[in-house]
Design brief:
The chain has six helices and two strands; from the N terminus they run ααααββαα. Strand 1 and strand 2 form a beta hairpin. The protein is globular, with a radius of gyration of 17 Å. With about 130 residues, it is mostly helical. It starts with a helix and ends with a helix.
Length: about 130
Amino acid sequence: MEKIRELRLLKKMTQEQLAEAADLSVGYISALENGKKSPSIKRLEKIAGVLGVTPTSLFDDADEAPAQCPFMKDGEWRAPAPEADDITRAICELLREAPLEIKIKILNYAKDMKRLSDLSLKRGQQP
């Protein structure tokens, strides 16, 4: 899975660092990146979580940068822009103190829900 290598390198991680963070072996990560193995869903979720993307994005051909909070800059919290709607502000306030691991899971879930919603709309528009 070439996408894993691209995202790993984007995050300036070695295979060893990714393997350790995802609790997998270096050989397994290497085999994935070289297309010699296919990951289980559980392992794919672990890798995606470490890389900060949704599991489905590891299959996309389109480039997707690692998940980033628009209210973070250089690792520091920034308040939402004044023009942000009430829901955005409420979500940000709820997540502000959550651990990064939880934030990534919630962001990945939201991205997957958005993709499913978009897909449903496309299918509904077809005859």
